[in-house]
C-alpha cells in the first residue's frame, strides 16, 4: 500500500510540475523580463543580463533563507499562474464548443446567433455549389462532367465552414455536434442518452483512446488560456502581444484538430458498439440502422412522469 501511495504521489507531483509549475515559471520569467525592459528597450538582451546579474548579487538572494523564500515564491507564483491559465482555458473551451450558446447573456447570445445565421448562409451556398457539381457528374458526355479538382475544391469549401449544416457559432462546436446529427439521421440514436450506457461497455483500450482525445481538446483550450494570460503583459512590454497572438493561433488550430478527432471517436464508438448495447438490452440481433437505434432509444428513454392532479 505504501509503494502504491508513493507511486501515486510521484505521478501527481510530475503532473503538477508539468502542467502548472513549468509553464507558470516561464510566464513569470517573461513577465519579469518585460517589466525590466519595458517598451523602450524591449529587445535589449544585454540590459536584461545586467539586471539578472545585479539581482543575483543581491544580499537577499545570496543567503540560504533568501533563496528558500525566493524559490517558494516562484513555485507559488508559477502554480497560481498555471491555475489561472487552466481557468481561462475552461472559458476558451466553452466558447469554442459553444454547446449552450442559446442561453449566453446579451450581447454574446445575439452575436452568436448572427454568426450562426451567417455560417448557415455561407454553408448553404457552398453546399449547393458542391451538389450542382455532383449532379453534373452524371452527365452522359465526359466533356460535360466537372474536373475532380473542382469537386474536391467545392467539398473543401463547405467543410471548412462545417461538415454538417452549422448549428453553433464555431467550427469545433459544429464538428462535435455533427456526430450527434449523423447518428440521429443514420440510426435514430440520441448520443446524449446512449453515450453513458455505451461507455460502460467499452473496453479499457477504447476508453483510453477517447480519454486521450478529450485530453487533447482540453490542452488546446488551456493553451488559449495562456494566450489570454500573456496578453496583459503587452501593456508594458510589446513583444507579449505577438507572443499572445501566436499562442492563440496555435490553440485555435489544435482545438480544430482535437475536436475533429474527438468527434470521430465518439461517432465510431457508437456505430461499432451499438449492437453490443442492444445485446445487453436483450434486443433481437439487427444490423446497425434506424430499426435498431429506434428500439435502443425506446428501451433507454425514461418516460415523462405524470404530474399528480391538484386537489
Key features?
transmembrane, mainly alpha, 311 residues, single chain
Topology:
Blueprint: H1 2-37, H2 45-56, H3 59-62, H4 64-97, H5 108-136, H6 148-161, H7 171-187, H8 191-201, H9 204-230, H10 240-280, H11 290-300
Helix pairs in contact: 1-4, 4-9, 5-6, 7-10, 8-10, 9-10, 10-11
Transmembrane segments: 16-37, 216-238
Protein name: Vegetative cell wall protein gp1
Keywords: Membrane, Transmembrane, Transmembrane helix
Overall description:
The chain crosses the membrane at residues 16-37, 216-238. The longest helix is centred in the last third of the chain and has 41 residues, at 240-280. With 311 residues, the chain is mostly helical. It is 76% helix and 0% strand. It folds into 2 domains: 21-98 and 170-299, no CATH class; 101-169. It contains 11 helices and no strands. It is extended. The termini are far apart. The model is unreliable at 1-10 (pLDDT under 50).
In short:
76% of the residues lie in helices and 0% in strands. By secondary structure, the chain is an all-alpha fold. It folds into two domains: 21-98 and 170-299, no CATH class; 101-169.
Amino acid at each position: 500500500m505504501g509503494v502504491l501511495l508513493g507511486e501515486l504521489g510521484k505521478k501527481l507531483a510530475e503532473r503538477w510540475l508539468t502542467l502548472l509549475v513549468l509553464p507558470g515559471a516561464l510566464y513569470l520569467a517573461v513577465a519579469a523580463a518585460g517589466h525590466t525592459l519595458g517598451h523602450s528597450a524591449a529587445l535589449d538582451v544585454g540590459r536584461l543580463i545586467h539586471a539578472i546579474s545585479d539581482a543575483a548579487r543581491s544580499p537577499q538572494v545570496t543567503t540560504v533563507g533568501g533563496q528558500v523564500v525566493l524559490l517558494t515564491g516562484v513555485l507559488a507564483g508559477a502554480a497560481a499562474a498555471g491555475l489561472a491559465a487552466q481557468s481561462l482555458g475552461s472559458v476558451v473551451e466553452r466558447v469554442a464548443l459553444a454547446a449552450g450558446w442559446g442561453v449566453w447573456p446579451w450581447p454574446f447570445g445575439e452575436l452568436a446567433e448572427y454568426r450562426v445565421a451567417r455560417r448557415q448562409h455561407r454553408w448553404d451556398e457552398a453546399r449547393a455549389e458542391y451538389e450542382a457539381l455532383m449532379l453534373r457528374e452524371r452527365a452522359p458526355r465526359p466533356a460535360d462532367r466537372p474536373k475532380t479538382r473542382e469537386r474536391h475544391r467545392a467539398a473543401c469549401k463547405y467543410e471548412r465552414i462545417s461538415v454538417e449544416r452549422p448549428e453553433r457559432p464555431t467550427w469545433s462546436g459544429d464538428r462535435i455536434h455533427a456526430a450527434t446529427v449523423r447518428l440521429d439521421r443514420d440510426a435514430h440514436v440520441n448520443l446524449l442518452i446512449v453515450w453513458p450506457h455505451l461507455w460502460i461497455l467499452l473496453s479499457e483500450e477504447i476508453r483510453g483512446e477517447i480519454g486521450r482525445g478529450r485530453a487533447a481538446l482540453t490542452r488546446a483550450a488551456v493553451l488559449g488560456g495562456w494566450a489570454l494570460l500573456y496578453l496583459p503583459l503587452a501593456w508594458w512590454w510589446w513583444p507579449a502581444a505577438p507572443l499572445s497572438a501566436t499562442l492563440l493561433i496555435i490553440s485555435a488550430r489544435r482545438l480544430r484538430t482535437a475536436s475533429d478527432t474527438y468527434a470521430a471517436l465518439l461517432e465510431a464508438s457508437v456505430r461499432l458498439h451499438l449492437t453490443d448495447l442492444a445485446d445487453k438490452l436483450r434486443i433481437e440481433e439487427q444490423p446497425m440502422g434506424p430499426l435498431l437505434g429506434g428500439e435502443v432509444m425506446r428501451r433507454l428513454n425514461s418516460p415523462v412522469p405524470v404530474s399528480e392532479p391538484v386537489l
